Amino acid sequence: MIELKIESIKRYLQRAFGDDARLIGAGDIGNLDEQGMKGFGYGKPLLIRFEVGGEEREAVLSVMKGDKYGHQFYWDRAAILMFQYETSARMERHVRPLGLGYVNGSDTLVPVEDPKEFFIVNEKLEGYDYFLDLDRIRGGDFRETDVECARDFARWLARIHGTKHDDPHLYYRRIRNLIGSSECILGLVDEAYPHPYPPFTDERFVALEKRLIDWRWKLKGYAHRLSAVHGDFHPWNILATGTGDFSVLDRSRGEWGEPGGDLATMAVNYLLWSLYDHDRLAGPFEAMYRAYFEEYLERTGDNEVLEVMAPFFVFRGLVIASPEWYPDHPASVRGRLFNLMVNVLEDEVFDWEHINRYME
């Protein structure tokens, strides 16, 4: 609930409409009983009568109510309100928006004026992209510390995933987005591949999508696994220091999700780098992959993660096999990644120790 005070409304009107804006009254729609403001909160509109430049005006102030239909977080609701602010006036007969703003931690109404784009400012961290270490290893400079780094990643994920959350609807949402989001599986199928695409025909895409529906319904039984996650844990989102420390960038797709997504995301990149010189996971990258999995499973005791990982390998496989994002892959590399995507869905439990059989 938001505690909205008369002074907050007055300040907002002056910031949004000018110093001569004057509040006349505020309350429930249909009556300006100011006591009604005590109940102002999510989903309950507030009628405001005010004056600007001698002209009396009325407006309705509202905050979108959170729900389980993809609006659990304030940034979900902000996106809806931004859309309405930007587009409503362009529709004939639609109510015209007069202002867009947010309520800060002090229940102050802060206007957003004529938004065009949003930005974020982050701290500057020292380090280099971790994928450069993978390039170094592929070039023949494999160090004992590289295996320990993989273990460090696993230990970090184990700590992150140790924070659990009881909200089945958030887990359903994460799995639903995994398959149906524009930046996840179906979006990649549509946009990251030309159609037709001879190396993976439309008929194979159709079969893949149908098989994923079975997995969506399977994973509905795993909502108890909802955990804190990174959401995009891959070599381009890791800053390494060369001294064993690392930092991460670009947390994505929500605070809560399935730990298997993070685990699969890094694992498939060890595979990718290996496939450039072998037709399988082998050599230094296999050593790192095994250390990574062994450490994670030992730290968490979470063997159940192997029951849910397959669709996340499909997602990440679609990313790294994409001819748009990775145009220089040899055909053999792309082909084995496609085999992985198809075959991994046929096992109820991911056989991490024998991943090479999925690429046959």
Question: Could you write a compact summary of the structure shown?
Answer:
One of its GO terms (molecular function) is transferase activity. This protein is α+β, with helices and mostly antiparallel strands and 360 residues long.
CATH superfamily annotation of the largest domain? Aminoglycoside phosphotransferase (APH), C-terminal lobe
Q: What is the helix fraction of residues, given as a range?
A: 40-55%
% residues in beta strands: 5-15%
Question: How many distinct folded domains?
Answer: 2
Order of helices and strands: HEEEHEEEHHHHHEEEEHHHH
Question: What Rg, in angstroms, do the CA atoms define?
Answer: 26 Å
Stretches with pLDDT under 50, minimum 5 residues? none
Overall mean confidence score, pLDDT:
93
Descriptive report:
This protein has eleven helices and ten strands. With 360 residues, it is an alpha+beta fold. The chain folds into two domains: 107 residues; 232 residues, Aminoglycoside phosphotransferase (APH), C-terminal lobe (Aminoglycoside 3'-phosphotransferase, Chain: A, domain 2). Strands 1-2-3 form a three-stranded antiparallel β-sheet, covered by helices on one side. A three-stranded antiparallel β-sheet has the order 6-8-9, covered by helices on one side. The longest helix is centred in the middle third of the chain and has 18 residues. The relative contact order is 0.10. The mean pLDDT is 93.
